[in-house]
Amino acid sequence: MTTIITQFPVAHAIQERRTIKNFKPDAVSLDLINELLNISVWAPNHKLREPWRFIAFVEGGRKTLVQLMKRDAEKGKMGKPMKKAKIDYLLEIPAHVVVIMPEDPRPNVWEEDFAAVSTLIQNFQLAAWERGLGVIWKTDAVIYSPEFRQSIGVQPGEKVVGILHVGYPETAPKPQTRTPATDRLTIISDASGMIEEELFYIPISKQNIFLNLQSIPKTEAIQLAGEKLVELGYVAENYIASMHEKEKVKSTYLGNGVSTPHGSKIAKEAVVKSGVVILHFPNGIDYENGEKVYIMIGIAAERSYHLDVLMKAATMFEMKGNADKVANATSIEEFIQRFEEVERDTRVW
């Protein structure tokens, strides 16, 4: 046990922590609560949204919270008087922390935020336990009451994730056995059950490869790529202008001597069918910032086809050696062979 405590203190705290229901009357300082909350906010949260805020009821504020809980329990025809024993119990708890999150209307964001806040609460419980404090995380019906929520300052569009009762333990329950995770673990260790997915290939043939072109200015090369797309029936002629406009807005230089000029979204209506042309400049063309392009892949894209081509090209030519291998081909047959070899060697599956 000593080894676990010294070498793995986090694991020890997780296994030793208990939910505490009976507290000593000793006060818990607001400074300590602030310190524990500042530790807790290191919980993982998507895009660092930090979807939480807190209301702490300490000292005389505890009586305010209990009065509001009592009033809510006794309201309406179905209300019942809160028993004195429960009132005394709640008043004796040294501190209460209400944890609140925004209720985002997007289901995935709501779930991410709720998970993040739940993680924060676990952080709080573990950090408190390390300091000798106990916590119980309460989600009683009162946290859903509009009157109670409004009374403590919860705003419309916010959710009370729980009320944390905090104090020094009077007694701690014995540990309850847990089902080993291995009893509920499914292990997949081979690829035999993989779902077959249709692989994407950049279409390449003798018809759409233009080999051993003379070096020309960048704009003329993009113009040529557009003209070849027109010749092969992929686009209407007005698509070419959008390729130049796209290049002005953002360079299509992919890296390692490869570029992928294509039209902007507004030129989609000029696309007849998806396809590519591949221009090969053995001596390179000046592209930008001193970079040279040896392989230019002109793209005509319906829907998201250009993204498929860009992703495939980025994967294939991520290593400069692959780009050089293809660019150094001296015949169309060799170019196709090398291109297909690189595609095969860089395939994920």
Would you kindly provide a written description of the structure presented here, covering whatever features stand out?
This protein has 349 residues and is α+β, with helices and mostly antiparallel strands. It folds into two domains: 166 residues, NADH Oxidase (3-Layer(aba) Sandwich), CATH 3.40.109; 137 residues, 3-Layer(aba) Sandwich (Mannitol-specific EII, Chain A). The protein is built from twelve helices and nine strands. The protein has a five-stranded mixed β-sheet. The chain has a four-stranded antiparallel β-sheet with strand order 1-2-4-3. Strand 8 and strand 9 form a beta hairpin.
Key traits:
40% helix, 12 helices, single chain, elongated, alpha+beta, four-stranded antiparallel beta sheet, five-stranded mixed beta sheet, NADH Oxidase, 349 residues, 2 domains, Mannitol-specific EII, Chain A
Count of folded domains: 2
| Mean of residue pLDDT values | 92
Radius of gyration: 33 Å
**Main sheet specs:** 5 strands, mixed
How is this fold's topology laid out?
Blueprint: H1 2-7, H2 9-16, H3 30-40, E1 53-58, H4 61-74, H5 84-92, E2 95-102, H6 107-130, E3 134-138, H7 146-152, E4 158-167, E5 209-210, H8 218-231, H9 239-249, E6 253-255, E7 258-259, E8 275-288, E9 291-300, H10 305-316, H11 320-327, H12 332-345
Quick summary:
It is built from twelve helices and nine strands. With 349 residues, it is of the alpha+beta class.
